[in-house]
Amino acid sequence: MVGDLIRLKLALTRHTVTGSRAAWAWSGATIGAVLAVAVVVLAAWPLRPASIVPDLLAIAYLTWLIGWVVGPVWSPAPPLRPAHLAMLPLPRHRLAVGLLAAGFVGLTTAVTVLLFTSLVVYAARLGVVPALLAVPLAALEVSLLVLLSRVAHVAFGRLARARAGAALNGVLLAIVLVLSQSGWMLLVGVLSSGVLEQGLPNGFSSALRWAPSGWALAAVEAAAAGDLGRVVLVVAAMLALAAVLLALWGTSLGEARGARAVVRGSVERRTPRIVPFDRPAGAIVLKELRTWWRDPARSAALSAPVAWGVLTAVLPLTFGAVELLPWAGALIAVMAASWMANMYAFDGTGLWLTLQTGTEWADVRARQWAYLIVYGPIALLVTIGFTLWSGLGWAWPWALAAVTGAVGGGAGLVTYASVTMPQPGPDAHERVENPAEGTEQIGSAFLVFFAALVPPLPGLGVVYLGTVWDSIALRWAGVLVSLLVGALLAWGLGRLAAARLVRTAPEMLLLMRSGRPTSSTETSEGKPALTGPDKTLEGVCWILGIIAIVPQGLLTVLFKLTGNQDVRVWFLAMYLPEPWGWLTSIGMILLGCYLMWFAFQLRRRATAKARP
Amino acid sequence: MNEAQAPALSIRGLHKTFGRTVSVNRVDLEVPRGSFFGLVGPNGAGKTTLLSMAVGLLRPDAGTSAVLGADVWRDGVWAKAHLGVLPDGLAMPEFLTGREVLTFLGRLRGLEPALVDARAQELLEVMDLLGSERTLVVDYSAGMRKKIGLATALLHNPRVLVLDEPFEAVDPVSALTLKRVLTRFVAQGGSVVLSSHVMALVEQLCDTVAVMSDGAVIASGPLAQVRGESTLEETFVALVGAGTGTVEGLSWLGT
């Protein structure tokens, strides 16, 4: 049966993990493999003091554990879903074991296996017996991680059935995002504390071994110290945890589907008579607001940007910097735009009613109003509160110009992006396993994130001039400019979006219905047909290009210009002596531009070929 | 064509392909005014695709469709105002209750609030949905989804109803009420087009039928004419062919 399940999983993966999703998978695997090799090298490196090596290993293992647990929230549902096999007359534990074995076949597991060879390498330094013991222990540890990940996937899905749980999922997602983008700030704090010279504090070291990710390491160390009793104890604990997790996961496999936490509607008898919008738009605004309140997917779309903006602004406080605080509201607005970049997919095929009632214009405008009503006050209040907290008096016009531009521009961008680049997701009543499950195509969200950074720029430019020329009036005029630009963008992009929706609503409905672009819409839109490998290559080029341009290029230039020479972490250019550092920064920007140009060319060539 | 004499639904050469599959192949169909029209066909015959194109939810590759003489693409606003549609398997505003869906749609259609309230109350009663007043549509069962869909199709008092599988998953008691509602609607001059797999139901309700197979209409006309001496089911099987699925296989079943 295991062989069959593995074949099934591979077949499903071939069909579902294609295009940009495959690009993300391969990019992730490549980066993961590089990190894993670095950890293996670290395990063999004679660092001083000697205790720092296992501690760093334990940190790496814990990081991987967190990745395995949080990853499922971040990623779309696995191709091989237990629900597909629920009706097979198999005992649950056999199904669980079979699915687990199939779960091992994958890129992430391969990278994790590579990581845990570091345990064997390190054990070899301690002696023959620990080395021999390390091989089965590493295998057991990998199984534990996979099992923890499976149980976490079920647990997060359950959580998301209630609105509060979905909101919590959004916060967790935001934490992962913040850590992966600004985790280096924490590292700056760690590195400047001198830990590498003196070793980690004892309490921290032992805490790392108490986490399930450190158990195999603890057993190897006990074996090296000749403490057999402890080895047996730790191994028994690992086996027991594996058994418990397997049992937990097994019970979830045959569960009845669709047990969601029930949200109750109101018993409203009458159509509201007074709404501050004309008829169709008012009805849609009301529907949207009710949906924001009741849909778990929307709870996550609200909590994640808020958590992300707040955390990103607060994290630099770890080394005493308050400069980011006033920007928190603007950050929320930017992330909100990114999160809602595919807003029509939240309602899926519900679009047919818009089409049937001919209310496309009202629909776009009403969604914009609802967007402003939901995110506007939060972004504005956070901006005001955090600017007060920071105590930076000069920051007021900057922060207000940023937030007004980002909120207004966002209200335009989300409608335009969701109409021009719609990505189908499951309809609400089909999101059975995880009601907050969205679409897996996040390309447009990515684009909108960067696009949403642009609308505040004119206003900020005026504020900058006001600062240079020392004019209070000009600085506050910047806020007004931002307000105008935001309003103009919301109006203009909304207009474009509505006009386009009128033209393409049937095609969009077909897309939502079939869940993927069908050939008849493809040809009518004249979209190029990239082959599978080319699509993957294109995606990899985009991702690596952005990494090269933004963090490795522009950010390092910024550090050099502002005199932050001691921030190194993963910024290659900061490790090299000048002029090589500067050359690396520039080289990275050029490399990134080339990669993006290459990706663009791939698509252009495919377009040229597609034309008869 | 004069609006007063135009057929309820007039389909001319509707055609749709998905990739290499021809889903609907240049279909012509005329639904006379005041008729109860049944569209039958096996799974995958193209019924849903045809009806989606006919009501303006799916853009055809070729052909036209007119409701009471008004083209659904060129004169969409007028056509859709006189059309009630129940599509198969499409989402509703899922996070509203049944009543909220009806009041929402009433306002989208520009009806007077008092009228919407009165009609919503009546429709919920007829559809037997008052018992689950606070349940959101997302938590509705399949049958309840059909019923609220039907209620939205009736709400604005259209003159032509196009219903895709309206009785699927609906319980017998509600089905009986529905049949009465639809029969009365036709008796008062309305026109109904419905698709179904259930021959007995079509035979009981409809006066005109069309049989669809492989994307084409292979027979259409008054019920008595299409079925001739035999039942509709026998005629249907004879027309569509018993297919390759014969009962002679599966000899092991039940032994």
Characterise this structure.
The complex is a heterodimer of chains A (612) and B (255). Chain A is mostly helical and 612 residues long. Chain A contains 24 helices and no strands. Chain A starts with a helix and ends with a helix. Chain B is of the alpha/beta class and 255 residues long. In chain B, the strands form two sheets. Chain B has a six-stranded mixed β-sheet, with helices on both faces. A four-stranded antiparallel β-sheet of chain B has the order 2-1-4-5. In chain B, strand 9 and strand 10 form a beta hairpin. In chain B, helix 3 runs antiparallel to helix 4. At the A-B interface, helix 12, helix 15 and helix 20 of A face strand 1, helix 2, helix 3 and helix 4 of B.
What descriptive keywords fit this protein?
heterodimer; A: 612 residues; mainly alpha; globular; B: 255 residues; alpha/beta; 6-stranded mixed sheet; 4-stranded antiparallel sheet; 35% helix
Overall pLDDT score of chain B? 88
Radius of gyration of chain A, in Å, reads 26 Å
Which series of helices and strands of chain A comes N to C? HHHHHHHHHHHHHHHHHHHHHHHH
Tell me the fraction of residues in β-strands of chain B, as a range: 15-25%
Give me the side-by-side strand order of the main sheet of chain B: 6-7-8-3-9-10
What is the first-to-last residue Cα distance of chain A? 48 Å
| Shape, principal axes of CA atoms of chain B | globular
- Main structural class of chain A: mainly alpha
Contiguous uncertain segments of 5+ residues of chain B: none
Question: Which helices and strands occur, and which strands form pairs?
Answer:
The complex is a heterodimer of chains A (612) and B (255).
Chain A: H1 2-16, H2 19-44, H3 52-74, H4 92-104, H5 107-126, H6 128-159, H7 163-191, H8 195-198, H9 202-210, H10 215-224, H11 228-253, H12 279-294, H13 296-314, H14 328-339, H15 351-357, H16 360-390, H17 395-420, H18 443-452, H19 457-468, H20 472-514, H21 519-525, H22 532-561, H23 572-575, H24 580-610
Helix pairs in contact in A: 1-4, 2-5, 2-22, 3-5, 3-6, 4-11, 5-6, 6-10, 6-11, 7-13, 10-11, 12-13, 12-16, 13-14, 14-16, 14-17, 14-18, 16-17, 16-20, 17-18, 17-19, 17-20, 19-20, 22-24
Chain B: E1 9-18, E2 21-31, E3 36-40, H1 47-55, E4 62-67, E5 70-71, H2 76-81, E6 83-86, H3 98-108, H4 113-126, H5 142-154, E7 160-164, H6 172-187, E8 191-196, H7 199-205, E9 208-213, E10 216-222, H8 223-227, H9 232-240
Helix pairs in contact in B: 3-4
